[in-house]
Design a protein that fits this description.
Layout (H helix, E strand, L loop, with lengths): L6 H13 L4 E4 L5 E5 L2 E7 L8 E5 L3 H8 L5 E2 L9 E5 L8 H15 L2 H7 L3
Antiparallel strand pairs: 1-2, 2-3, 3-4, 4-6, 5-6
Helix pairs in contact: 1-3
């Protein structure tokens, strides 16, 4: 299945989706874009200035989602020991890179792992 958008457009779509989640805010520690909820990162977007390949890093504790993410070309457990906690780094370039829709599903999964129950209830409309 061919992707309709390039890596930068996919990154922006994922960023916009993440920022639309209850309580989400963007910060730039280390010069990289991260999206946080309750002062905790739920998605790393890296730098978007072209100095590094585009990718996202998410926390996926659901075994199926985690395994699926790792099947993406170039995907790997995140560095700095984060991979041991379920964090997966997924490149956005390449013909077989995940679609924006799938990445947004994974962003929501990561959000649900990190966010407080009150915000998850808001997301679910409870």
């Amino acid at each position: 299945m061919a992707k309709a958008a390039g890596p930068a457009a996919v990154r922006e779509r994922v960023r916009a989706f993440a920022l639309g989640l209850p309580g989400a805010a963007e910060e730039f520690p280390w010069g990289e874009s991260v999206i946080k909820v309750n002062k905790k990162v739920f998605v790393f977007l890296g730098v978007g200035d072209g100095s590094h390949p585009l990718g996202v890093t998410l926390k996926l504790t659901d075994p199926e989602a985690h395994a699926h993410a790792l099947t993406s070309p170039g995907a790997r457990p995140a560095g700095y020991g984060l991979g041991k906690s379920g964090w997966v780094q997924v490149p956005l370039a390449g013909p077989d890179a995940p679609s924006a829709e799938l990445l947004c599903d994974w962003v929501e999964e990561s959000y649900r792992v990190i966010a407080p129950k009150k915000l998850i209830a808001e997301l679910d409309g409870v």
